[in-house]
Fold these 3 entries.
Entry 1:
Amino acid sequence: MRRLRWLAPALAATALVAAGCGGSDSGGGGSTTATKTPIKIGASLPLTGDFSEPGKAAQQGYRVWEKMVNGQGGLLGRKVQIVVRDDASDQNTVVADYNALISRQKVDMLLGTFSSLLNLPASTVAERNRKLYVEPAGGAPEIFTRGYKHIFFAQQATADHQGDVFADYILKLPPDQRPKTAAYPSLDDPFALPVLNGIREKFEKAGIKTVYRTKYANENTNFDSIANAVKAAKPDVLMHGATFADGVNFVRALDKVGFTPKYFFQTSAPSFADQYSKGVGVQNTEGTFYAVSWDAKAKTPGNDQFVKQFNAMYGAGEPAEDAADAFAAAQVMQAAVKAVGGIDDQTKLADWIRGHSVNTILGPLKWDKTGAPQGQFLIGQWQNGKSQIVLPKSAATSQTIVQKTPGA
């Protein structure tokens, strides 16, 4: 997702320059036929570095799509071959990688990388080359303010709207249950901050007082002081902007200082399934809310087949959300290619996507003219050691919503 790091202006400027050496090739999993060359699809993913966990999950999602499409006869009657490079979670490397994919490896199409930090510069390469660019995780609002014509985000909403459903739930609680105070610690991150700011604006407008607000650098690994400050502020609802490691470490710090709010919402980290519960301890997951794009139990078209193929390729268990998002991004690209009937004019592919809704394993997705999605995220909550979808009710896998027990 959705998860980002702080974006310095100097880095953003540097990333627009096609310089430096690309990351290593990670192979292409498709096969060829004797009579037709495959459609080569290039992507650079953070297989190492800060974003390596979601980056590897995204690669799995792309590989599952590749396997399933080829098993159905390919795309336009040709096999597909995904070529993945490792950008090592680095802005300059991701730019070099996408330039290399286009100019040296001669890929026919592109798929996006993980995080807005990397998708911001990578999409500039795609735009300059008039290549369709569907990204699986990069919801920073600034991505869609540049007037680009070829970029699309394959989730339901940009970061500033991913907490809307949760905020509306809290504001509709009976007066005696509704929080009166809130705290907002966050990673200094152009994904996490907009999520929290979107919720905070709704809360403050409704009279929920902000009693604590801070942001920290991505290098921060000790959260004791922030946890103590939160405990001193005693918020009824605690909103934490996080990726994975900082999300886990912050919950550990809260446990250490002995503070539990009535309501706890955290970005990104709780969607990492067993990795999250093992990191924070199952007992500390109870009642935690998070925004999520997908659920393994969803009855969306093709979801069962995706989970089945994933388990066949990577072992039994629930796929990570980032794998599902990558699969959905490939589905969007696939739908456009099938509808247009070719890949030579990728501006035409982009125009088709802007005018249509696409059914994916995340559900139907649609976009405005900027490539920003126009939908609502699901809200998950950890209950009895398992992650459940609780909002909206039409998509819920659990019909109850639990509250944390302060002091527990």
Entry 2:
Amino acid sequence: MGESIGSPALWGGFFVFVFAMLALDLGLLNRGSHTVSAKQALRFTALWVSLGLMFGAGMWWQFGSRLGLEFLTGYVIEYSLSVDNIFVFIIIFRAFRVPNEYQHRVLFWGILGALILRMAMILMGSALVQRFHIVLYGFGAFLLWTGLKILFTKDDDGEENPEESAVVRQVRKLIPTTKELHGNAFFVVEAGRRMATPLFICLVTVEISDVIFAVDSIPAIFGITQDPFVVFTSNIFAIMGLRSLYFLLAQWVTLFRFLKTGLGIVLSFVGLKMLSGALTLINEAWAVHIHPAISLGVIVSVLVISIVASAVIPVKEVPPETDKPA
């Protein structure tokens, strides 16, 4: 396995770009608490998608078509998996009763934490893959199992309340917490005692949910490329655009009812692609090589079909219950 294309200068330049965009976002464009409008969310979503595509084009021009396609494929997978994150974020904000004008602050710091956590997970995963190549087959089996589970497991009707989770209860035991929100503050001082607000507990819950989703998404990108720089940058561009995508799709996310099925097919496809490499352990002649362009085409086609099907196929209406005679 070759070395990463990411030189220290390239890594450093990318980090400078990311933190400059975060500073611009928080310090200038989103200063103060306010409700993000659909128009503003659309502009920022278009901006982040454009930046991601431009970066992919730059990778293609600088390092060749293969790495450019690998970046774009990983970016598409990660961005599509973000829709599941959005659904969970909606549940979390409802459970903690966070007003719309405070949600962008929670998501900003949540994304900043996700950058750090995902970088650690990616570097550890990359080190394992480079040292023990067989780990890739474990990733493939896990993704195939996850994809099949999504396809053949029905969604539960009830939604688990994040406030009642074991992790949140443990955090409340360790950190004194107020009962009510105090504006957009994460911590306040009451009776001379520093206490966390429910907004901080909400932030912790958002971070935990992102780590759980990363367990699926990061192995999926390792199924496309094993270059740490490509894995990390495709992840980060998708995460950076997640906040604006949330405000754009929060009201309509339930309309994409077949997208989860599409994601199950995508994860199963990537898992099988990774497991196909295990055939070389038996016989080199059995090696299966799928060109990155084919992988990208399959993934984009499945996602587009699932979205179009969600819009075209009508929802089955449940007939109302009729009163039975006594």
Entry 3:
Amino acid sequence: MFAGGPLSWVLFTLLILTMLALDQGIFHRKSHVISMKEALLWTVIWISFGLLFGAGVFYYKGNEAGMQYLAGYIIEKSLSVDNIFVFILIFSSFRVPAAYQHRVLFWGILGALLMRGIFIGLGAALIERFSWILYLFGAFLVYTGIKIFLTRDDESGDPSDNAVVRLFRKFARITPTYEKNHMFVKRDGKWWATPLMLVLVIVETSDLIFAVDSIPAIFAVTTDPFIVYTSNVFAILGLRSLYFLLAGSMDKFHYLKVGLAVVLVFVGVKMLISGVYHIPVVASLLVICGVLVASIVASLIYARRVPEEPALPDPTHIPEHHAAVLEDEEPGDEL
């Protein structure tokens, strides 16, 4: 599985599909509110899977490949945390009941895996044919990092009023209310999309944007498509559980975006100077970890010293009047 040949890709894909099938088909078959305990358990499980796979890379492909996988995993994991800010904004804006959020994130992340696979394949092909594309990636990452650093949290905009939402509403009939956890329902012989489907479209769009930002970052560490893809997959597989674990406390990580911006600028510079000086993977890993730890510690210190401000809305909270309808999830003419 770790060799990187065609069989490795097939076995890895089967492994991921099996894990996703077990997750959605058995462990999360019924829509329910994800508790902190459950979110913590699944966060530990997904991180453990990612690190165990990394240990396999170390054992079968050597220290250099193992360090590349670990560095890529940490980069993508840290950048995926930025998705959580956007998910909070989306779910709060559309008042998505907490019990239905897991299903949206499941399909959203499945779409993200497909998009990243396509982007990684295109990126690897471009780099193999045009080596100078790495410098373009590097410049893009430096620009993105500076942009994140200069962008204020309140400049994110309203996700319920953007081009994607307007386009979807123009071509699809949308029910006025949520229909349990269904994406589509049939009414009077016609199919209607539900607001949950609209939310999924927005989540997929945000995943696409994040993929454009994050895929070039890992190419600063390695150009091996197998390591790039596997580290990406394991980094985002646990994003759902991490979201439910951190959603109610993201306002406490005041300097996390600063840390992510610095990481992007660093990997961008690493790519830009690669023709003159190659920064070792171990050094890159230490810098990235050091920046992230420093931003988290600074955030915790800031949270203690500054008087509490109104917290970000907790989208995992579910009003009591929704609780009664969550037990009955048998579909009729719904999807």
